[in-house]
Specification:
The chain contains 16 helices and seven strands. The chain is of the alpha+beta class and about 525 residues long. It has helices at about 5-10, 20-35, 45-60, 60-80, 80-110, 115-140, 145-165, 170-190, 195-285, 295-325, 340-355, 375-395, 430, 440-445, 450-460, 510-530; strands at about 335, 360-365, 370-375, 400-405, 410-420, 465-470, 475-485. The chain is rod-shaped. The protein has four domains: about 20-245, no CATH class; about 275-325; about 335-485, Heat Shock Protein 90 (2-Layer Sandwich); about 510-533. The protein has a five-stranded mixed β-sheet. Helix 1 packs antiparallel against helix 2, helix 5 runs antiparallel to helix 6 (about 115-140) and helix 7 packs parallel to helix 9.
Length: about 525
């Protein structure tokens, strides 16, 4: 049987090519499946494994069998004579040595499936001869004493028990070795014609049946163990094959990701260069810096060009930001940030757009909130993305609420709630995925790229916060982002002046200067410690 564990390590070695790994894994799986078929019957029997176990058992028990033969030969000489017992002992030892020799030959070579049948027949015939040898020494002539009968029954039980255990992997060999002994002993007892001997004959046959059943149970257990091991080997092969395929797919995905990053970086430069010219010249034309247009429609066209360029530039920036976040290359530039002020600035930036659509934005800020240790640009981008989405999907005359305050755990939160059409519950995972758009977004005339919410969610995840989206159809949508308590900067406590008042003297100025310097150093050190959190 091939060493499946070593093959698995060969498949997992990095030096092997992916094609070689897949080929070896497929071959291993086929071999494991082939071992589930048998040349000796319809059940899934493992011929070679069973024969190998039979040979190993006989070799390992060889000293015990030798001792048993010599002992029985010496004791049997009490009623058969020294010559008869000596001849029997020599013959039994010879047959036993031949069996051991054949077992060693079998284990020393790797037989083909065609030769397994001949090896099985050899082992069965050798066990048959060995059983007949025991039969000759245990046949008790009529008229001997009862002690000899008891000895015969004891030896018969011992031979049957040992043979049933040693040859359990091949039940036919068990029958070939034990049946001649048991039948001969039973006939010998029955021929004496007494009730006592009839009982002994029945006991001999019953013992044969019991140990035969035991041998079959051991055979079934061995077979189940081999089947489980073969299935495990097949599973290991399939796992290694799947691992090889997944490793190759991972390498291809990494290569594709690197190519995508390079493409985005290159296209970012190639697109932004002409976009700057488009935005600059269109703004000059829209403002009519070098004079009025001959046709008034040109001014409107210049404004459309400028707006389209700004939209395209924003889209490129969003794609690049998302690709950097997904690649783990987005670095937070952390500093002290006032969440109230950041949200209020974003409100002022988008207030005109909301007013043009007739949307009222209400601010509900908790006063005197301490600053956050966060990336101010990321915080503003989160707020702008959420607020612009709310304005985009809120109908005219609707309302939006901006809320900032404390969380129950001591952190801070920002909430954007609108009175838009809402998002169906089954579409929430879609709108949170990259480039995902819900049905309302598709129907809207002002469509986007579907990157606002994913970017906001990823940015708040980088800060260790949470992103929660709640929505009900025809009622509205609310998005809540929270910052963890460890990002909240506590206010500095005032420095208490416990020193007694100092009377004016000549060194007053120098002392005051030294005290002020020490206080400033202490204050600066405290601020540095808080910022390092």
């Amino acid at each position: 049987m091939p060493n499946t564990i070593s093959e698995a390590h060969e498949l997992a070695s990095p030096a092997a090519a992916p094609q070689t790994k897949r080929r070896l894994a497929s071959q291993h799986v086929r071999e494991a499946r082939d071992r589930l078929t048998s040349t000796s019957g319809t059940r899934p029997v493992f011929d070679y494994e069973l024969l190998r176990q039979f040979a190993q058992n006989r070799i390992s028990a060889s000293p015990v069998i030798l001792l048993l033969i010599v002992t029985i030969g010496l004791l049997s000489g009490l009623w058969t004579g020294a010559l008869t017992s000596g001849v029997w002992t020599a013959g039994a030892l010879l047959i036993h040595l031949v069996i051991i020799r054949k077992c060693r030959l079998f284990l020393g070579e790797t037989p083909s499936p065609a030769s397994l049948r001949s090896w099985r027949m050899r082992f069965i015939m050798l066990d048959l001869f060995f059983g007949m040898a025991w039969m000759f020494i245990l046949i008790n002539p009529i008229g001997l004493d009862e002690e000899a009968s008891t000895f015969m029954l004891f030896v018969m039980l011992m031979v049957v028990a040992i043979s049933s255990m040693l040859a359990s992997s091949m039940p036919i060999a068990v029958f070939a070795l034990t049946l001649p002994v048991s039948i001969a002993i039973a006939i010998d007892f029955a021929a004496k014609g007494t009730l006592h001997n009839y009982i002994l004959a029945v006991m001999a046959l019953t013992a044969e049946g019991y140990f035969s059943l035991l041998a079959y149970r051991l055979y079934s257990t061995t077979l189940a163990t081999l089947e489980a091991r073969a299935e495990k080997d097949a599973l290991i092969g399939e796992l290694e094959q799947s691992k090889s395929i997944s490793d190759e797919a991972r390498r291809r995905a990494e290569a594709a990701n690197i190519a995508k990053s390079r493409f985005l970086a290159q296209m970012s430069h190639e697109l932004r260069t002409p976009l700057n010219a488009i935005l600059g010249f269109s703004e000059v034309m829209k403002a009519e810096i070098f004079g009025p247009h001959g046709v008034a429609a040109y001014k409107d066209y210049a404004g459309d060009i400028h707006n389209s360029g700004v939209h395209l530039l924003n889209l490129i920036n969003e794609i690049l930001d998302l690709s950097r976040i997904e690649a783990g290359r987005y670095e937070l530039n952390e500093e002290a940030v006032s969440l109230n002020r950041a949200v209020e600035d974003c409100h002022h930036l988008l207030k005109l757009r909301a007013s043009n659509r007739g949307i009222a934005i209400h601010e509900m800020f908790e006063p005197d909130l301490p600053k956050l240790w966060a990336d101010e640009r990321a915080v503003r981008q989160i707020c702008l993305n959420l607020l612009s989405n709310a304005i985009k999907f809120t109908p005219q005359g609707g309302e939006i609420w901006l809320k900032v305050g404390w969380t129950a755990s001591g952190g801070q939160y920002m909430s954007v709630k609108d009175t838009g059409p809402g998002i169906p519950e089954e579409e929430i995972p879609i709108v949170l995925a990259s480039f995902g758009q819900g049905s309302n977004s598709i129907k809207s005339a002002e469509q986007g790229a579907g990157l606002g919410l994913p970017i906001a969610k990823n940015l708040i995840d980088l800060h260790g916060g949470t992103f929660t989206l709640k929505s009900k159809l025809r009622i509205g949508t609310e998005v809540i982002v929270t910052f963890p308590p460890e990002r909240v900067m506590s206010a500095l406590a005032p420095i208490a002046d416990t020193a007694p008042p100092i009377q004016p003297h000549a060194g007053m100025a120098a002392t005051a200067d030294d005290g002020t310097s020490r206080a400033r150093k202490a204050l600066f050190g405290t601020q540095t410690l808080i910022r390092s959190r």
